[in-house]
Amino acid sequence: MAFSHVFYHTTLPKDVVKIIRDDLLKFDPNLVESLVGGGGPEGNPIKDIRKAKNSWIPATHWSAGFIMHYVNLVNKDNFGYDIDGIQGDTMQYTVYDEGEYYTWHQDEGIESLYKPIADGPNSGNSEARIIDYVNSNTQLIRKLSFSLQLSDPSEYEGGQFQLIDDTGKSFVAPKEQGTLIIFDSRLRHRVRKIKSGCRKSIVGWVVGPKWR
Questions:
Q1: Among 21, 37, 149, 164, who pairs with 179 as Cys (CB 3.0-4.6 Å)?
Q2: Taking the chain, what is the end-to-end CA distance rounded to the nearest angstrom?
Q3: Which residue, among 193, 206, 197, 173, has the nearest Cα to 3 in the 3D structure?
Q4: Beta bridge mates, 48
């Protein structure tokens, strides 16, 4: 029986986590208001859904190799999905300060799939049919999401990472520093409001061919 989400207690020494955090400080000047929608810098600021800050880390950053080791391991042992790699070759360095949050959402859903244009009055349009064929057969979708906990639980209150599985059961992810959370991108999840302090993490999405 496969699980819809996995928590890896990576047991990273605190000194190693500090090295990651210190190295990511160079991305702080690029922090911007987090957006909703899109798989990269595009999207919309909708504060009743999400209030946070983030910057983008290239997948060439050494931390991506560490994360993908665990993603590939859990995919082999649990999910068995056809995956290609990190979406857009970028990860998101995310910072939640006091009062910030991300309400219930999915990273991937049916609404994000390509919508055919050779429909209705365009059904006989050969150019539209070619576009549909190419897009439908080359679209990559989010299959696995991940979140690496960089902050120590003593550094903030609130900010629990919560998921709901297919049965409606709710899970709260461990807040232990260095925990890597890997889950099916279709699961609904949220980050509860930060009551005090600051929560930092690296999040990202692993994509693969459209479900068939």
A1: 149
A2: 21
A3: 173
A4: none
Query: What are the Cα distances from residue 114, in Å, to 18, 109, 137, 210?
Result: 41, 11, 10, 10
Residue for token pair 């859990």: 74
Angstrom distance (rounded) from CA 201 to CA 148 = 5
Res. 208: pLDDT tops 90: yes
Give the chain's domains with CATH numbers: 5-112+140-209 (2.60.120.620)
Token pair of 165, please?
């599985």
Count of C-beta atoms within a 10 Å radius of residue 173: 19
Q: What is the DSSP string of 63-91?
A: HHHHHHHHHHHHIIIII-----EEGGGEE
Q: Residue 76 and residue 99: Cα distance in Å, rounded?
A: 38
Residue 138 has pLDDT above 70, yes or no: no
Which of 5, 58, 57, 40 minimizes the C-alpha distance to 167?
5
**How many angstroms separate the CA atoms of 139 and 113, rounded?**
8
Count CB neighbours of 122 within 10 A. 14
How much is the pTM? 0.85
Q: Residue 206: left (phi > 0), alpha (psi -120 to 50), or beta?
A: beta
Contact predicate 141/111, CB 8 Å: no
